[in-house]
Design a protein that fits this description.
heterodimer; A: 461 residues; 25 strands; 21% helix; globular; B: mainly alpha; elongated; SKP1 (chain B); Skp1_comp_POZ (chain B); ubl conjugation pathway (chain B)
Protein backbone atom coordinates (compact mmCIF):
# COMPACT_ATOMS: atom_id res chain seq x y z
CA UNK A 1 0.00 0.00 0.00
CA UNK A 2 1.89 2.95 -1.27
CA UNK A 3 -0.45 5.53 0.18
CA UNK A 4 0.61 4.82 3.70
CA UNK A 5 4.18 5.43 2.83
CA UNK A 6 3.30 8.76 1.37
CA UNK A 7 1.37 9.60 4.44
CA UNK A 8 4.27 8.78 6.68
CA UNK A 9 6.64 10.62 4.46
CA UNK A 10 4.48 13.67 4.67
CA UNK A 11 4.44 13.41 8.42
CA UNK A 12 7.99 12.60 9.18
CA UNK A 13 9.54 14.54 6.39
CA UNK A 14 12.21 13.55 3.99
CA UNK A 15 13.88 11.40 6.59
CA UNK A 16 11.43 8.60 6.13
CA UNK A 17 11.62 8.85 2.39
CA UNK A 18 15.34 8.52 2.76
CA UNK A 19 15.01 5.40 4.82
CA UNK A 20 12.51 4.00 2.43
CA UNK A 21 14.70 4.53 -0.59
CA UNK A 22 17.65 3.18 1.27
CA UNK A 23 15.68 0.14 2.15
CA UNK A 24 14.58 -0.48 -1.39
CA UNK A 25 18.18 -0.41 -2.33
CA UNK A 26 19.11 -2.67 0.43
CA UNK A 27 16.59 -5.29 -0.55
CA UNK A 28 17.98 -5.34 -4.01
CA UNK A 29 21.47 -5.84 -2.78
CA UNK A 30 20.97 -8.51 -0.25
CA UNK A 31 21.72 -12.06 -1.10
CA UNK A 32 18.78 -14.19 -0.03
CA UNK A 33 20.86 -16.54 2.02
CA UNK A 34 23.46 -14.76 4.01
CA UNK A 35 24.86 -17.89 5.55
CA UNK A 36 26.22 -18.91 2.18
CA UNK A 37 28.13 -15.64 2.43
CA UNK A 38 30.50 -15.13 -0.49
CA UNK A 39 28.06 -15.83 -3.27
CA UNK A 40 27.59 -12.79 -5.41
CA UNK A 41 24.09 -13.78 -6.22
CA UNK A 42 22.79 -10.58 -7.75
CA UNK A 43 23.74 -8.14 -10.38
CA UNK A 44 25.66 -5.07 -9.28
CA UNK A 45 23.39 -2.41 -7.93
CA UNK A 46 23.41 0.61 -10.16
CA UNK A 47 21.64 2.72 -7.61
CA UNK A 48 24.42 2.29 -5.17
CA UNK A 49 27.05 3.74 -7.37
CA UNK A 50 27.54 4.56 -10.98
CA UNK A 51 30.30 2.03 -11.26
CA UNK A 52 29.68 -1.66 -10.97
CA UNK A 53 30.07 -2.84 -7.43
CA UNK A 54 29.50 -6.19 -5.82
CA UNK A 55 26.52 -6.74 -3.54
CA UNK A 56 27.64 -5.84 -0.08
CA UNK A 57 26.63 -7.57 3.09
CA UNK A 58 25.51 -4.21 4.38
CA UNK A 59 24.47 -1.19 2.36
CA UNK A 60 27.23 1.30 1.71
CA UNK A 61 25.62 3.97 3.89
CA UNK A 62 25.73 1.68 6.87
CA UNK A 63 29.27 0.58 6.16
CA UNK A 64 30.27 4.23 6.24
CA UNK A 65 28.33 4.73 9.49
CA UNK A 66 30.39 1.92 10.96
CA UNK A 67 33.65 3.24 9.55
CA UNK A 68 32.95 6.69 10.95
CA UNK A 69 33.19 5.04 14.37
CA UNK A 70 36.35 3.10 13.57
CA UNK A 71 39.97 3.92 14.12
CA UNK A 72 41.88 5.34 11.15
CA UNK A 73 43.96 2.18 10.67
CA UNK A 74 40.81 0.10 10.26
CA UNK A 75 39.42 2.72 7.89
CA UNK A 76 42.61 2.55 5.85
CA UNK A 77 42.41 -1.23 5.64
CA UNK A 78 38.80 -0.99 4.51
CA UNK A 79 39.87 1.43 1.82
CA UNK A 80 42.21 -1.30 0.67
CA UNK A 81 39.34 -3.74 0.17
CA UNK A 82 37.70 -2.18 -2.88
CA UNK A 83 37.60 0.96 -5.00
CA UNK A 84 34.13 1.99 -3.93
CA UNK A 85 35.07 2.18 -0.26
CA UNK A 86 38.34 3.87 -1.02
CA UNK A 87 36.53 6.61 -2.90
CA UNK A 88 34.05 7.20 -0.12
CA UNK A 89 36.60 7.07 2.65
CA UNK A 90 38.76 9.66 0.90
CA UNK A 91 35.83 12.05 0.68
CA UNK A 92 36.54 15.23 2.65
CA UNK A 93 33.11 15.10 4.29
CA UNK A 94 33.78 11.59 5.55
CA UNK A 95 37.20 12.56 6.87
CA UNK A 96 35.65 15.47 8.74
CA UNK A 97 33.18 13.09 10.32
CA UNK A 98 35.92 10.70 11.24
CA UNK A 99 37.89 13.46 12.85
CA UNK A 100 34.92 14.67 14.84
CA UNK A 101 34.16 11.14 15.99
CA UNK A 102 37.78 10.41 16.83
CA UNK A 103 37.90 13.49 18.97
CA UNK A 104 34.86 12.38 20.89
CA UNK A 105 35.07 8.65 21.34
CA UNK A 106 37.16 7.73 24.26
CA UNK A 107 37.41 3.98 24.49
CA UNK A 108 40.34 3.64 22.12
CA UNK A 109 43.38 5.71 22.46
CA UNK A 110 43.36 6.95 18.94
CA UNK A 111 45.85 9.59 19.76
CA UNK A 112 49.16 8.91 21.24
CA UNK A 113 50.38 11.60 23.50
CA UNK A 114 54.01 12.20 23.96
CA UNK A 115 55.41 14.87 26.22
CA UNK A 116 58.51 16.21 24.57
CA UNK A 117 60.78 18.23 26.75
CA UNK A 118 62.87 21.18 25.84
CA UNK A 119 66.44 21.12 26.79
CA UNK A 120 67.13 22.98 29.97
CA UNK A 121 68.32 26.54 29.74
CA UNK A 122 71.98 26.41 28.88
CA UNK A 123 73.68 24.51 31.64
CA UNK A 124 76.73 25.63 33.53
CA UNK A 125 78.93 23.35 31.48
CA UNK A 126 78.00 25.10 28.31
CA UNK A 127 76.74 22.01 26.60
CA UNK A 128 73.33 21.60 25.04
CA UNK A 129 71.65 21.26 28.39
CA UNK A 130 69.70 18.36 29.69
CA UNK A 131 66.48 17.01 28.39
CA UNK A 132 64.55 14.22 29.99
CA UNK A 133 63.56 11.47 27.59
CA UNK A 134 60.14 12.04 26.06
CA UNK A 135 57.28 10.70 28.09
CA UNK A 136 55.07 8.63 25.90
CA UNK A 137 51.69 7.34 26.79
CA UNK A 138 51.83 3.60 26.50
CA UNK A 139 49.76 2.28 23.68
CA UNK A 140 49.87 -0.97 21.84
CA UNK A 141 50.48 -1.36 18.13
CA UNK A 142 53.59 -1.22 16.09
CA UNK A 143 52.64 2.06 14.46
CA UNK A 144 52.88 3.79 17.79
CA UNK A 145 56.14 2.00 18.50
CA UNK A 146 57.51 3.19 15.18
CA UNK A 147 56.39 6.74 15.92
CA UNK A 148 57.94 6.65 19.37
CA UNK A 149 61.23 5.43 17.90
CA UNK A 150 61.08 8.13 15.27
CA UNK A 151 60.34 10.89 17.81
CA UNK A 152 63.01 9.70 20.20
CA UNK A 153 65.59 9.73 17.43
CA UNK A 154 64.58 13.23 16.45
CA UNK A 155 64.75 14.57 19.98
CA UNK A 156 68.24 13.20 20.47
CA UNK A 157 69.35 15.91 18.07
CA UNK A 158 69.97 19.57 18.88
CA UNK A 159 66.55 20.91 17.85
CA UNK A 160 63.85 21.87 20.31
CA UNK A 161 60.22 20.93 19.73
CA UNK A 162 58.16 24.12 19.64
CA UNK A 163 54.77 23.23 18.22
CA UNK A 164 52.72 20.28 17.08
CA UNK A 165 49.52 19.74 15.22
CA UNK A 166 47.88 17.34 12.80
CA UNK A 167 50.44 14.69 13.73
CA UNK A 168 53.34 16.94 12.77
CA UNK A 169 56.01 18.44 14.95
CA UNK A 170 57.78 21.77 14.48
CA UNK A 171 61.34 21.96 15.71
CA UNK A 172 63.55 24.99 16.11
CA UNK A 173 67.29 25.03 15.61
CA UNK A 174 69.46 27.82 16.89
CA UNK A 175 69.47 30.25 19.79
CA UNK A 176 65.91 30.93 20.78
CA UNK A 177 66.86 34.33 22.18
CA UNK A 178 67.49 35.43 18.62
CA UNK A 179 64.39 34.02 17.00
CA UNK A 180 64.90 35.45 13.56
CA UNK A 181 68.17 33.60 13.20
CA UNK A 182 66.63 30.24 14.01
CA UNK A 183 65.55 27.67 11.51
CA UNK A 184 62.18 25.96 11.64
CA UNK A 185 61.75 22.41 10.56
CA UNK A 186 58.57 20.36 10.27
CA UNK A 187 58.94 16.69 11.12
CA UNK A 188 56.51 13.91 10.31
CA UNK A 189 57.19 11.06 12.75
CA UNK A 190 55.00 8.62 10.83
CA UNK A 191 56.86 9.04 7.56
CA UNK A 192 60.07 9.71 9.47
CA UNK A 193 60.84 12.70 7.27
CA UNK A 194 61.70 16.29 8.01
CA UNK A 195 61.13 19.40 5.98
CA UNK A 196 63.28 22.48 6.57
CA UNK A 197 61.40 25.75 6.09
CA UNK A 198 63.06 28.62 4.22
CA UNK A 199 63.73 31.88 6.13
CA UNK A 200 60.63 33.80 7.16
CA UNK A 201 60.06 37.53 6.93
CA UNK A 202 58.61 38.11 10.37
CA UNK A 203 59.25 36.94 13.90
CA UNK A 204 57.22 33.92 14.96
CA UNK A 205 55.79 35.25 18.19
CA UNK A 206 52.87 32.90 17.55
CA UNK A 207 53.27 29.68 15.63
CA UNK A 208 51.07 26.79 14.65
CA UNK A 209 51.20 23.90 12.23
CA UNK A 210 48.18 22.27 10.63
CA UNK A 211 47.57 19.68 7.95
CA UNK A 212 46.63 21.26 4.64
CA UNK A 213 43.36 19.57 3.91
CA UNK A 214 42.71 21.62 0.79
CA UNK A 215 45.89 20.35 -0.74
CA UNK A 216 46.10 16.71 0.13
CA UNK A 217 48.49 14.37 -1.52
CA UNK A 218 52.10 13.90 -1.59
CA UNK A 219 55.33 15.77 -1.51
CA UNK A 220 57.00 12.74 -2.92
CA UNK A 221 54.42 10.02 -2.60
CA UNK A 222 54.46 7.54 0.23
CA UNK A 223 51.76 9.15 2.29
CA UNK A 224 53.43 12.46 3.09
CA UNK A 225 51.09 15.08 4.43
CA UNK A 226 50.82 18.57 3.04
CA UNK A 227 50.78 21.15 5.78
CA UNK A 228 50.70 24.84 6.55
CA UNK A 229 52.71 26.69 9.15
CA UNK A 230 51.15 29.90 10.38
CA UNK A 231 53.15 32.54 12.21
CA UNK A 232 52.33 35.98 13.59
CA UNK A 233 54.49 38.64 15.17
CA UNK A 234 53.57 41.03 17.96
CA UNK A 235 52.29 43.53 15.41
CA UNK A 236 49.89 40.78 14.37
CA UNK A 237 51.32 40.55 10.90
CA UNK A 238 50.94 37.02 9.70
CA UNK A 239 52.68 34.77 7.25
CA UNK A 240 51.82 31.25 6.15
CA UNK A 241 54.09 28.60 4.77
CA UNK A 242 52.51 26.05 2.50
CA UNK A 243 54.33 22.80 1.85
CA UNK A 244 52.45 22.53 -1.42
CA UNK A 245 53.90 25.81 -2.65
CA UNK A 246 57.18 25.14 -0.87
CA UNK A 247 57.38 28.79 0.13
CA UNK A 248 56.15 31.40 2.59
CA UNK A 249 53.22 33.45 1.39
CA UNK A 250 53.12 37.23 1.60
CA UNK A 251 53.05 38.98 4.98
CA UNK A 252 49.42 39.73 5.66
CA UNK A 253 47.81 42.04 8.13
CA UNK A 254 44.16 41.44 8.82
CA UNK A 255 41.56 44.12 8.42
CA UNK A 256 41.20 44.83 12.11
CA UNK A 257 40.24 47.74 14.29
CA UNK A 258 42.88 49.98 15.77
CA UNK A 259 42.49 48.39 19.21
CA UNK A 260 43.60 45.05 17.84
CA UNK A 261 46.54 46.22 15.80
CA UNK A 262 49.14 44.63 17.96
CA UNK A 263 49.94 42.72 21.10
CA UNK A 264 50.62 45.44 23.69
CA UNK A 265 54.17 45.46 24.95
CA UNK A 266 53.27 44.47 28.49
CA UNK A 267 51.20 41.47 27.46
CA UNK A 268 52.85 38.15 28.11
CA UNK A 269 51.83 34.94 26.43
CA UNK A 270 50.77 32.44 29.07
CA UNK A 271 52.28 29.01 28.60
CA UNK A 272 51.63 26.72 26.87
CA UNK A 273 52.19 28.50 23.62
CA UNK A 274 49.95 26.16 21.67
CA UNK A 275 46.70 27.79 20.62
CA UNK A 276 43.21 26.38 20.89
CA UNK A 277 41.91 26.24 17.35
CA UNK A 278 38.18 26.46 16.73
CA UNK A 279 37.21 26.50 13.08
CA UNK A 280 39.40 29.07 11.34
CA UNK A 281 40.32 30.95 14.48
CA UNK A 282 43.19 30.26 16.86
CA UNK A 283 43.13 31.44 20.49
CA UNK A 284 46.02 32.30 22.78
CA UNK A 285 45.90 33.38 26.40
CA UNK A 286 47.77 36.52 27.49
CA UNK A 287 48.54 37.95 30.86
CA UNK A 288 48.79 41.71 31.39
CA UNK A 289 52.19 42.33 32.83
CA UNK A 290 51.17 45.28 34.97
CA UNK A 291 48.30 43.53 36.71
CA UNK A 292 48.52 39.92 37.85
CA UNK A 293 44.76 39.58 37.80
CA UNK A 294 44.06 40.54 34.21
CA UNK A 295 44.01 38.12 31.34
CA UNK A 296 42.92 38.45 27.74
CA UNK A 297 42.43 35.98 24.96
CA UNK A 298 43.65 36.77 21.48
CA UNK A 299 41.44 35.38 18.73
CA UNK A 300 43.26 35.39 15.42
CA UNK A 301 41.99 34.22 12.04
CA UNK A 302 44.45 31.71 10.62
CA UNK A 303 42.94 30.72 7.27
CA UNK A 304 40.28 31.86 4.86
CA UNK A 305 38.88 35.34 4.50
CA UNK A 306 39.30 36.17 8.17
CA UNK A 307 43.01 35.47 8.06
CA UNK A 308 44.99 37.88 10.16
CA UNK A 309 41.90 39.41 11.73
CA UNK A 310 42.34 39.79 15.43
CA UNK A 311 40.09 40.37 18.40
CA UNK A 312 40.74 40.52 22.13
CA UNK A 313 38.41 38.76 24.55
CA UNK A 314 38.61 39.88 28.16
CA UNK A 315 38.72 37.18 30.78
CA UNK A 316 36.44 37.83 33.73
CA UNK A 317 38.29 38.83 36.86
CA UNK A 318 36.17 36.28 38.68
CA UNK A 319 38.20 33.52 37.05
CA UNK A 320 41.31 34.96 38.57
CA UNK A 321 39.87 35.64 42.01
CA UNK A 322 39.31 31.99 42.80
CA UNK A 323 42.81 30.99 41.81
CA UNK A 324 44.89 29.08 44.29
CA UNK A 325 47.67 31.57 44.25
CA UNK A 326 46.58 35.00 43.19
CA UNK A 327 49.90 36.63 43.99
CA UNK A 328 52.10 34.90 41.52
CA UNK A 329 52.44 37.07 38.51
CA UNK A 330 53.10 34.74 35.67
CA UNK A 331 51.17 31.71 36.58
CA UNK A 332 50.12 28.55 34.93
CA UNK A 333 46.97 28.12 36.91
CA UNK A 334 44.88 29.14 33.95
CA UNK A 335 44.60 27.11 30.78
CA UNK A 336 42.73 27.74 27.60
CA UNK A 337 40.87 24.66 26.35
CA UNK A 338 38.02 23.70 24.08
CA UNK A 339 35.09 21.65 25.25
CA UNK A 340 35.19 19.36 22.24
CA UNK A 341 36.87 19.26 18.88
CA UNK A 342 34.70 21.88 17.30
CA UNK A 343 33.28 23.08 20.54
CA UNK A 344 33.41 26.12 22.70
CA UNK A 345 36.32 28.00 24.09
CA UNK A 346 36.74 27.50 27.82
CA UNK A 347 39.17 28.39 30.55
CA UNK A 348 40.36 25.99 33.22
CA UNK A 349 41.38 27.40 36.57
CA UNK A 350 43.09 25.77 39.53
CA UNK A 351 41.11 26.85 42.54
CA UNK A 352 41.59 26.68 46.27
CA UNK A 353 42.16 24.28 47.87
CA UNK A 354 42.70 21.80 45.06
CA UNK A 355 40.14 21.65 42.31
CA UNK A 356 39.78 22.47 38.66
CA UNK A 357 36.90 24.56 37.45
CA UNK A 358 35.89 25.31 33.91
CA UNK A 359 34.71 28.72 32.81
CA UNK A 360 32.76 28.95 29.62
CA UNK A 361 31.85 32.11 27.87
CA UNK A 362 28.46 32.85 26.46
CA UNK A 363 29.14 33.97 22.93
CA UNK A 364 25.83 35.76 22.49
CA UNK A 365 27.27 39.20 21.99
CA UNK A 366 30.80 40.39 22.07
CA UNK A 367 30.07 43.45 24.18
CA UNK A 368 28.26 41.63 26.97
CA UNK A 369 30.01 38.36 27.50
CA UNK A 370 29.26 36.50 30.64
CA UNK A 371 31.28 33.69 32.09
CA UNK A 372 29.83 30.65 33.79
CA UNK A 373 31.73 28.38 36.11
CA UNK A 374 31.44 24.72 36.93
CA UNK A 375 33.75 22.52 38.95
CA UNK A 376 35.30 19.78 36.84
CA UNK A 377 37.19 17.75 39.40
CA UNK A 378 37.65 18.30 43.07
CA UNK A 379 40.30 17.45 45.58
CA UNK A 380 38.91 13.99 46.32
CA UNK A 381 38.84 13.00 42.67
CA UNK A 382 42.37 14.24 42.12
CA UNK A 383 43.90 12.71 45.21
CA UNK A 384 42.02 9.48 44.61
CA UNK A 385 43.73 9.05 41.28
CA UNK A 386 47.25 10.11 42.10
CA UNK A 387 49.39 9.01 45.01
CA UNK A 388 51.40 11.90 46.34
CA UNK A 389 54.64 10.87 47.94
CA UNK A 390 53.92 13.21 50.82
CA UNK A 391 50.96 14.67 52.64
CA UNK A 392 48.42 16.29 50.30
CA UNK A 393 48.99 19.58 52.06
CA UNK A 394 52.38 19.64 50.44
CA UNK A 395 50.97 19.32 46.97
CA UNK A 396 51.04 23.04 46.83
CA UNK A 397 52.46 23.60 43.47
CA UNK A 398 50.13 22.73 40.66
CA UNK A 399 50.59 23.97 37.13
CA UNK A 400 48.90 23.40 33.85
CA UNK A 401 51.34 22.42 31.16
CA UNK A 402 49.44 21.75 28.00
CA UNK A 403 46.10 21.18 26.38
CA UNK A 404 46.17 18.47 23.72
CA UNK A 405 43.16 19.35 21.65
CA UNK A 406 42.97 16.21 19.55
CA UNK A 407 42.36 13.94 22.51
CA UNK A 408 40.94 16.58 24.84
CA UNK A 409 43.70 15.95 27.36
CA UNK A 410 44.98 18.43 29.88
CA UNK A 411 48.51 17.87 31.10
CA UNK A 412 49.39 19.24 34.50
CA UNK A 413 52.25 19.04 36.93
CA UNK A 414 51.74 18.52 40.61
CA UNK A 415 54.37 18.80 43.26
CA UNK A 416 55.28 15.42 44.83
CA UNK A 417 53.15 13.67 42.26
CA UNK A 418 54.61 14.45 38.85
CA UNK A 419 52.95 14.62 35.48
CA UNK A 420 49.22 13.95 35.41
CA UNK A 421 46.78 13.72 32.51
CA UNK A 422 43.18 14.81 32.81
CA UNK A 423 40.83 13.77 30.04
CA UNK A 424 38.26 16.51 29.61
CA UNK A 425 35.73 14.20 28.03
CA UNK A 426 35.74 11.45 30.61
CA UNK A 427 37.24 13.46 33.48
CA UNK A 428 39.54 10.51 34.02
CA UNK A 429 42.70 11.44 35.89
CA UNK A 430 45.78 9.48 34.95
CA UNK A 431 49.09 9.67 36.67
CA UNK A 432 51.75 9.55 33.98
CA UNK A 433 55.09 9.85 35.71
CA UNK A 434 56.83 11.10 38.74
CA UNK A 435 59.30 13.78 37.93
CA UNK A 436 61.65 15.33 40.45
CA UNK A 437 60.95 18.98 40.97
CA UNK A 438 64.56 19.96 40.30
CA UNK A 439 64.35 18.39 36.91
CA UNK A 440 60.97 19.92 36.22
CA UNK A 441 62.30 23.37 36.97
CA UNK A 442 65.11 22.95 34.51
CA UNK A 443 63.25 21.53 31.59
CA UNK A 444 60.03 23.45 31.49
CA UNK A 445 58.32 24.11 29.17
CA UNK A 446 57.41 21.10 27.18
CA UNK A 447 55.61 20.35 23.99
CA UNK A 448 53.02 17.66 23.53
CA UNK A 449 52.83 15.50 20.46
CA UNK A 450 49.60 13.86 19.44
CA UNK A 451 49.46 11.25 16.77
CA UNK A 452 46.69 12.15 14.38
CA UNK A 453 46.02 9.46 11.84
CA UNK A 454 43.14 11.13 10.05
CA UNK A 455 45.38 13.32 7.85
CA UNK A 456 47.20 10.16 6.81
CA UNK A 457 44.05 9.06 5.06
CA UNK A 458 44.29 12.11 2.82
CA UNK A 459 46.85 10.28 0.74
CA UNK A 460 44.00 8.10 -0.51
CA UNK A 461 42.64 10.89 -2.63
CA UNK B 1 9.29 -3.56 -3.48
CA UNK B 2 5.75 -2.78 -2.51
CA UNK B 3 5.21 -2.02 1.10
CA UNK B 4 2.27 -2.97 3.21
CA UNK B 5 -0.34 -4.13 0.76
CA UNK B 6 -3.90 -4.69 1.70
CA UNK B 7 -4.10 -2.94 5.04
CA UNK B 8 -5.98 0.11 4.99
CA UNK B 9 -9.15 1.98 5.01
CA UNK B 10 -10.23 1.13 8.53
CA UNK B 11 -7.22 3.00 9.70
CA UNK B 12 -8.91 6.32 10.26
CA UNK B 13 -11.44 4.79 12.65
CA UNK B 14 -8.73 3.15 14.66
CA UNK B 15 -6.82 6.30 15.26
CA UNK B 16 -8.99 7.28 18.19
CA UNK B 17 -8.59 3.96 19.95
CA UNK B 18 -4.86 4.02 19.25
CA UNK B 19 -4.34 7.16 21.17
CA UNK B 20 -5.53 5.54 24.37
CA UNK B 21 -3.25 2.51 24.31
CA UNK B 22 0.16 2.71 25.83
CA UNK B 23 1.72 0.05 23.66
CA UNK B 24 2.05 -0.36 19.93
CA UNK B 25 1.97 -3.64 18.07
CA UNK B 26 4.56 -4.21 15.37
CA UNK B 27 4.40 -6.94 12.77
CA UNK B 28 7.53 -8.46 11.26
CA UNK B 29 7.97 -9.49 7.63
CA UNK B 30 7.10 -13.06 8.56
CA UNK B 31 3.91 -12.01 10.33
CA UNK B 32 4.95 -12.24 13.98
CA UNK B 33 3.53 -9.66 16.38
CA UNK B 34 5.51 -7.75 18.97
CA UNK B 35 4.31 -5.28 21.57
CA UNK B 36 6.40 -2.37 22.62
CA UNK B 37 5.75 0.56 24.92
CA UNK B 38 4.52 3.52 22.95
CA UNK B 39 6.60 5.90 24.97
CA UNK B 40 9.84 3.97 24.34
CA UNK B 41 9.06 3.49 20.66
CA UNK B 42 8.41 7.18 20.19
CA UNK B 43 11.48 8.19 22.14
CA UNK B 44 13.92 5.80 20.49
CA UNK B 45 12.70 5.69 16.91
CA UNK B 46 12.06 8.75 14.80
CA UNK B 47 10.09 6.69 12.30
CA UNK B 48 7.81 5.11 14.89
CA UNK B 49 7.43 8.51 16.54
CA UNK B 50 6.28 9.90 13.21
CA UNK B 51 3.85 7.05 12.72
CA UNK B 52 2.43 7.38 16.21
CA UNK B 53 2.04 11.13 15.85
CA UNK B 54 0.44 10.66 12.47
CA UNK B 55 -1.90 7.96 13.71
CA UNK B 56 -0.69 5.45 11.15
CA UNK B 57 -0.21 2.76 13.76
CA UNK B 58 -2.23 -0.36 13.21
CA UNK B 59 -3.88 -1.92 16.23
CA UNK B 60 -3.59 -5.37 14.75
CA UNK B 61 0.10 -4.97 14.13
CA UNK B 62 1.82 -2.24 12.17
CA UNK B 63 3.42 -3.91 9.23
CA UNK B 64 7.19 -3.62 9.09
CA UNK B 65 7.74 -5.82 6.10
CA UNK B 66 11.36 -4.87 5.89
CA UNK B 67 12.24 -6.31 9.25
CA UNK B 68 12.44 -10.01 10.02
CA UNK B 69 11.07 -11.40 13.27
CA UNK B 70 14.49 -12.00 14.78
CA UNK B 71 15.60 -8.43 14.20
CA UNK B 72 12.28 -7.02 15.32
CA UNK B 73 12.44 -9.07 18.48
CA UNK B 74 15.85 -7.56 19.18
CA UNK B 75 14.54 -4.08 18.47
CA UNK B 76 11.65 -4.55 20.89
CA UNK B 77 13.95 -6.15 23.44
CA UNK B 78 16.24 -3.17 23.15
CA UNK B 79 13.37 -0.71 23.62
CA UNK B 80 12.21 -2.52 26.74
CA UNK B 81 15.69 -2.76 28.19
CA UNK B 82 16.28 0.87 27.42
CA UNK B 83 13.09 1.83 29.23
CA UNK B 84 14.30 -0.08 32.28
CA UNK B 85 17.78 1.34 32.32
CA UNK B 86 18.49 4.86 33.43
CA UNK B 87 16.67 6.98 30.93
CA UNK B 88 18.93 9.86 30.19
CA UNK B 89 18.22 12.59 27.75
CA UNK B 90 21.92 12.77 27.07
CA UNK B 91 21.85 9.39 25.41
CA UNK B 92 19.55 10.36 22.67
CA UNK B 93 20.56 13.96 22.42
CA UNK B 94 22.69 14.68 19.42
CA UNK B 95 23.90 18.05 20.56
CA UNK B 96 27.63 18.39 20.77
CA UNK B 97 28.55 19.57 24.15
CA UNK B 98 30.84 18.67 26.93
CA UNK B 99 29.57 15.29 27.95
CA UNK B 100 26.91 14.56 25.40
CA UNK B 101 28.68 13.57 22.26
CA UNK B 102 27.10 12.53 18.97
CA UNK B 103 28.70 9.11 19.28
CA UNK B 104 28.40 8.18 22.87
CA UNK B 105 30.06 5.07 24.18
CA UNK B 106 27.69 2.14 24.67
CA UNK B 107 26.73 1.47 28.22
CA UNK B 108 27.44 -1.82 29.92
CA UNK B 109 24.01 -3.33 29.28
CA UNK B 110 24.10 -2.19 25.66
CA UNK B 111 27.44 -3.88 25.18
CA UNK B 112 26.06 -7.09 26.60
CA UNK B 113 22.99 -6.73 24.47
CA UNK B 114 24.95 -6.69 21.20
CA UNK B 115 27.68 -9.05 22.35
CA UNK B 116 25.32 -12.00 22.46
CA UNK B 117 24.21 -11.50 18.86
CA UNK B 118 25.53 -13.50 15.92
CA UNK B 119 27.04 -11.67 12.94
CA UNK B 120 23.88 -12.09 10.95
CA UNK B 121 21.61 -10.98 13.75
CA UNK B 122 23.82 -7.96 14.31
CA UNK B 123 23.77 -6.98 10.64
CA UNK B 124 20.01 -7.38 10.55
CA UNK B 125 19.67 -5.28 13.66
CA UNK B 126 21.85 -2.50 12.29
CA UNK B 127 19.61 -2.30 9.25
CA UNK B 128 16.46 -2.38 11.32
CA UNK B 129 17.83 0.42 13.51
CA UNK B 130 18.66 2.45 10.45
CA UNK B 131 15.28 1.79 8.90
CA UNK B 132 13.40 2.78 12.04
CA UNK B 133 15.57 5.83 12.62
CA UNK B 134 16.79 4.56 15.98
CA UNK B 135 19.84 6.70 16.39
CA UNK B 136 21.01 5.26 19.65
CA UNK B 137 20.63 1.63 18.60
CA UNK B 138 22.37 2.44 15.34
CA UNK B 139 25.20 3.88 17.38
CA UNK B 140 25.50 0.82 19.57
CA UNK B 141 25.35 -1.69 16.73
CA UNK B 142 27.75 0.26 14.50
CA UNK B 143 30.12 0.56 17.40
CA UNK B 144 30.03 -3.19 17.91
CA UNK B 145 30.69 -3.95 14.24
CA UNK B 146 33.47 -1.40 14.21
CA UNK B 147 35.05 -3.23 17.13
CA UNK B 148 34.76 -6.49 15.24
CA UNK B 149 36.68 -5.03 12.33
CA UNK B 150 39.56 -3.82 14.44
CA UNK B 151 42.83 -5.48 13.55
CA UNK B 152 41.32 -7.36 10.64
CA UNK B 153 43.19 -7.57 7.36
CA UNK B 154 41.58 -6.34 4.13
CA UNK B 155 40.98 -9.98 3.18
CA UNK B 156 39.16 -10.68 6.42
CA UNK B 157 37.11 -7.51 6.05
CA UNK B 158 36.15 -8.51 2.53
CA UNK B 159 34.93 -11.83 3.80
CA UNK B 160 32.84 -10.36 6.59
CA UNK B 161 31.14 -7.80 4.39
CA UNK B 162 31.10 -9.74 1.18
CA UNK B 163 33.23 -7.16 -0.58
CA UNK B 164 34.67 -8.06 -3.93
CA UNK B 165 38.26 -7.06 -4.52
CA UNK B 166 38.35 -4.97 -7.69
CA UNK B 167 41.92 -3.78 -7.38
CA UNK B 168 44.69 -5.03 -9.56
CA UNK B 169 47.74 -6.57 -7.92
CA UNK B 170 49.78 -3.48 -8.70
CA UNK B 171 47.16 -1.15 -7.23
CA UNK B 172 47.00 -3.19 -4.05
CA UNK B 173 50.74 -3.03 -3.66
CA UNK B 174 50.61 0.73 -4.18
CA UNK B 175 47.91 1.15 -1.55
CA UNK B 176 49.81 -0.96 0.90
CA UNK B 177 52.75 1.36 0.47
CA UNK B 178 50.69 4.51 0.74
CA UNK B 179 49.00 3.23 3.86
CA UNK B 180 52.01 1.43 5.30
CA UNK B 181 51.22 2.92 8.70
CA UNK B 182 47.93 1.03 8.79
CA UNK B 183 49.54 -2.30 8.02
CA UNK B 184 52.20 -2.28 10.69
CA UNK B 185 50.45 -4.93 12.72
CA UNK B 186 50.34 -7.50 9.95
Amino acid sequence: MKSRWFEIAALSGALVVGFHILFQRLKQQRTPDRKGSVLHAQAPDRLLDTEASPPLQLPLDLLLEILARSDPATVARCAATCRLLRRHVADPAFLRRLRAAAAITTSDHRFLIGLLYHRGRSSSHGDMGTRPPPLLKSSSGSLTNAVIASLSGELAGPDDPVASGGGLLVLRRGNKHYPTTTTLRVFDPVAGRGHVLPPRDIWDHLLLVMPDEDEPGALGGGGDINFKVFIADRDLRTQTYSSKAGAWGPVVRGNTTAACLRVPGDYELVQPWSPVVLGNVAHWLYHHGWDPGVYSILALGIIGIGKGQAAWIDVSRECHRRRRDTHREVCRELLLVSTSDDGELALLVWERPLKVSMWTMSSSSSSQRSWTRRVLIDRTAILGSVQPTCHPLWCQRVEFQWFAQGSGTVVFYMNSVGVVLLNLRTLEVRHLQRLPLELFDKVSPLCVYELDMVPLLLSLR
Amino acid sequence: MEVDKGKGEAEETRKVAEADRDTVTLKSSDGKLFEVSKEAAARLSTVLAGMIAGGSIDDNGTDLKQIGSEALENVVDYCNKHANSIPSAALISSSISFNTAPFKEPEEWERKFVDRLSHDALFDLVEAANFLGMERLLDVTCHKISEMMKGKSPDQIREVFNIKNDYTKEELEEIRQELAWAFYDD
